[in-house]
Write a structure and sequence with these properties.
Layout: H1 12-63, H2 72-75, H3 93-101, E1 105-107, E2 122-124, E3 134-136, E4 159-161, E5 184-186, E6 195-198, H4 210-213, E7 214-215, E8 226-227, H5 232-235, H6 262-273, E9 279-280, E10 291-292, E11 299-303, E12 372-376
Parallel strand pairs: 7-8
Antiparallel strand pairs: 1-3, 2-3, 4-5, 6-11, 9-10, 11-12
């Protein structure tokens, strides 16, 4: 009888080869899966913004104004500005909009004590004075409260209060007994709060200066189209969202964080919110336009996107700007080229983009960022 030959074991070299092949497969498959997951989340976020925008349009049709219990100018007062007040009141533009779209207001009497006999209420508002604040029951937001029409019912998985330290810059903070930090916030599918940029509907002057279009807040005689203060509680966050991202980081933070001069911040708002299809060209101008005649829309909803940073300094879109020349999002680059990769200063009309027929045209610098926006309203 023939004896069976003993089983042959794998050699060390063979095991190392198999492990290397498995490692290569993992290195190829995992980024693809992560990319697919990010694509799905981005698509879902676009749908989320579209749904909110549709609700806002329905509200505007019924009420002849944009949603938001407090006006854009009141939301932009200095007490709600993270640059002017430390800490600010911290009411965000989206929280303000949800008060109209999803309800939850239980008293507008302006008293310093909460209403009794109902659900727990918190005092909210862009001002510190009790007579300029209202009482809101967070548990009622998005439910069928008495007589309220719910224009939008938030998905509870995407309606999250920013309690943790550094998530929302405002009074009284995560441990306070009441205030805006207890209001739930609409978050995108990446886990970060959605911003809302609402035009000041009382501002109708032509745009001829930076202040006509954008300002940090509405203090003094400022009368601008858009203000930064209503979103400052998140743009100055040092631990935003699920990933606790520092929006104020000088290297990887947001171009809208307000960490630089106020003039740079206003110019970045012009670059972001200015409509590239409606530039202002002064009579006999010889340089590329630096101001827009109009904004992208009366209401712009804004997700930070995959990287979790609102118009981040490390985003691919930021590479089109030379921050050694200008430390802001440059509206002018919608119309003029960057010769040799250098951002032009005072570029002439001859430096502009031309279409196939040789006529002046433009691009949209915002499209190069991973941020997700939805523009609407009238």
């Amino acid at each position: 009888m023939r004896r069976a030959s003993p089983r042959r074991a794998f050699t060390l070299i063979e095991l190392l080869v198999v492990i290397a092949i498995i490692a290569i497969i993992i290195a190829i498959v995992f980024p693809a899966l992560a990319g697919a997951r990010s694509t799905v989340r981005a698509s879902s976020t676009k749908q989320l913004l579209a749904n909110i925008q549709n609700a806002a349009s329905a509200f505007q049709t019924d009420n002849n104004r944009l949603p938001g219990y407090f006006s854009a100018r009141h939301m932009a007062n200095a007490e709600n500005d993270a640059r002017a007040t430390n800490p600010p009141q911290g009411l965000s533009a989206m929280e303000n909009i949800m008060l109209d779209l999803a309800g939850g207001i239980v008293s507008t009497d302006g008293t310093s004590t909460p209403p009794s006999g109902g659900p727990t209420a918190v005092s909210v508002g862009p001002y510190s004075a009790a007579n300029r604040r209202i009482w809101v029951a967070p548990d009622l937001i998005g439910t069928s409260t008495a007589g309220d029409k719910a224009y939008y019912v938030p998905d509870r998985k995407l309606f999250v209060a920013q309690f943790s330290p550094g998530q929302q810059n405002g009074l009284p903070g995560a441990t306070g007994p009441e205030g805006t930090a207890q209001l739930p916030d609409i978050v995108d599918h990446f886990g970060n709060p959605v911003l809302a940029w609402a035009v000041d509907q009382g501002s109708a002057q032509p745009v001829r200066t930076t202040a006509d279009f954008a300002a940090v807040n509405s203090s003094g005689a400022v009368n601008s189209r858009y203000y930064w203060a209503p979103n400052s509680c998140f743009l100055t966050a040092t631990a935003l969202g699920k990933k606790a991202i520092d929006q104020t980081d000088a290297v990887s933070g947001s171009l809208l964080s307000g960490s630089g001069p106020a003039a740079d911040l206003a110019n970045s708002m012009i670059g972001f919110l200015g409509n590239p299809s409606y530039p202002y060209r002064a009579p006999a101008a010889t340089t590329g336009p630096i101001l827009p005649e109009a904004g992208r829309a009366p209401l712009v909803l804004h997700s930070a996107g995959v990287d979790g940073v609102y118009l981040g300094r490390k985003d691919r879109g930021a590479k089109q700007f030379d921050f050694s020349v200008r430390n802001w999002i440059d509206y002018q680059l919608n119309f003029v080229k960057r010769p040799n990769g250098i951002e032009p200063v005072g570029a002439t009309v001859n430096d502009g983009y031309l279409d196939k027929d040789g006529k002046p045209t433009n691009i949209d610098i915002l499209e190069r960022f991973d941020d997700i926006t939805n523009a609407g309203g009238s």
